[in-house]
Specification:
The chain has 76 residues and is mainly α. The longest helix is centred in the middle third of the chain and has 22 residues. Keywords: Membrane, Transmembrane, Transmembrane helix, Transport.
Amino acid sequence: ELGQGYIIDSFLVVVLGGVGQLAGSVAAAFGLGIFNKILEPQMGAVLGKILILVLIILFIQKRPQGLFALKGRVID
């Protein structure tokens, strides 16, 4: 194993926090870590990870720019 679990978790943190946003990535890391530790005892490690992945997919559908989005221009 070459650390696939860490790579997946790191990718989820960056996507959830917003690409290029350090504060968003830190907030997402804390949130995912706490949420994972709360879910693990009740659901098990595998089901907890599946639930987190489903929730992140739903979150990305609603807010694709992440938690802390870069300010951008809007074309009128």
